[in-house]
């Protein structure tokens, strides 16, 4: 495995207004053909609408299959690689997180799923396809007055629509839970995503949310099926796995980057949560990841 010391990060160099778009189809070369099977992370969001075709991905060690009429959103920082792609009709859209206003950013950070994958009804897929086509017409028209402002507003509206579609599915699965319990769980999820390196104990999260540890733990467990410690550890170990698989950082350097003062404790916790030691996990990755 040819690693370079840290995970490659694809950045938004020279993109107009913090946006990159491209259609894909039979007449186009695939926009996703670059560095296929090379693990990397982005510092931006990217969205894929597959109206017809399929893409096989690995996202943070989870296998993801995008089939006909599927919408997918990747968060900044997630590690992914494209395993295969046969694309006939759809869109690729990437955008800078700074485009999103705070309420929309909060909505995305509070999603309970780590992978935003939304199956669409035919009419929904047609609606999204049409919407993105309109965004693209603005994106490719330098004569459009107020092009940058219009483009950024349209992308924001599109992401709101995507979030609405995802949340409709999420709420269906959470319908038996009280609204207040869902709100608490989502706020906790957002804190974990944003502060998992600096906040480690359930009591620290509870203090941030102005509630007792027992109330936070009981609420999160009732909604997700897991205690708060599970979510905290999963977020930490997800980043640890990224660094073990796709970097040459030493175990001590990884422990330091995750806020562990004691590398031995990090090793014990990783072994307990993941089921194998960090060293074993890294060796398994060297056998299975080809870049």
From TrEMBL:
<keyword id="KW-0805">Transcription regulation</keyword>
<dbReference type="Pfam" id="PF02311">
    <property type="entry name" value="AraC_binding"/>
</dbReference>
<dbReference type="Pfam" id="PF12833">
    <property type="entry name" value="HTH_18"/>
</dbReference>
<dbReference type="InterPro" id="IPR003313">
    <property type="entry name" value="AraC-bd"/>
</dbReference>
<keyword id="KW-0804">Transcription</keyword>
<keyword id="KW-0238">DNA-binding</keyword>
<dbReference type="InterPro" id="IPR009057">
    <property type="entry name" value="Homeodomain-like_sf"/>
</dbReference>
<dbReference type="InterPro" id="IPR037923">
    <property type="entry name" value="HTH-like"/>
</dbReference>
<dbReference type="InterPro" id="IPR018060">
    <property type="entry name" value="HTH_AraC"/>
</dbReference>
<protein>
    <submittedName>
        <fullName>Helix-turn-helix domain-containing protein</fullName>
    </submittedName>
</protein>
<dbReference type="InterPro" id="IPR020449">
    <property type="entry name" value="Tscrpt_reg_AraC-type_HTH"/>
</dbReference>
<feature type="domain" description="HTH araC/xylS-type">
    <location>
        <begin position="186"/>
        <end position="284"/>
    </location>
</feature>
